[in-house]
Design goal:
- It is built from five helices and ten strands, in the order βββαβααββαββαββ.
- It is an alpha+beta fold.
- Helix 2 runs antiparallel to helix 3.
- The protein is elongated, with a radius of gyration of 21 Å.
């Protein structure tokens, strides 16, 4: 995955939205994924409160986390539900993107008909130069998915055939234009 922002993440009325997709709250409430999308400033406020109430050795870890979050400028962060780990776009964009993809995939499992990703047309040399439509989050990812697909030249019998790979629903299929 390239080290660039490929997702628009927001929290609106307590709903997490990724690229305008409202993520099912079950993804977070049922801890299907191991991170939550959090408002950084709210998490800073929470840590300050927890530190003031803490009377054990966790106080040092919380202070360390607070120091880390205070220097970030990100509006939203990812907070681990299992540890005191935080990830932001500015701290580790690659890890941030990978976790966001996990969240989107968890949402997709709950809602198989959800339209996530974008369809890219990539040139597919492995199949003698045909174009393949690939549903992915970036053109680079689409190209990689096409390279690793199971499509081969035996499926190019008809010049009207088109090939589509939807990496997020697990489908790889061929469809034919209707010719009159």
């Amino acid at each position: 995955m390239e080290d660039e922002k490929i997702f628009n993440v927001s929290i609106i009325d307590n709903d997490v939205k990724i690229n305008n997709i409202v993520i099912d709250t079950k993804v977070f409430d049922d801890e299907i994924v191991s991170y939550r999308v959090m408002d950084r400033e709210s998490e800073v406020d929470n840590l300050i409160q927890w530190i003031s109430e803490c009377k054990n050795s966790d106080k040092f870890a919380m202070k360390t986390d607070l120091g880390e979050l205070m220097v970030w400028n990100d509006t939203l962060i990812l907070s681990s539900v299992n540890t005191n780990d935080y990830v932001s776009e500015s701290s580790d964009i690659e890890a941030f993107n990978e976790i966001i993809i996990e969240i989107l995939n968890a949402h997709k499992k709950l809602h198989p008909d959800a339209n996530i990703g974008t369809t890219y047309r990539v040139h597919f040399e492995k199949t003698l130069g045909i174009d393949v439509e690939v549903v992915a989050f970036s053109e680079e990812e689409a190209t990689e998915i096409a390279r690793n697909s199971k499509l081969d030249k035996t499926k190019i019998d008809n010049p009207n055939n088109h090939y589509k790979i939807d990496n997020y629903s697990g489908f790889e299929y061929c469809y034919t234009d209707l010719v009159e």
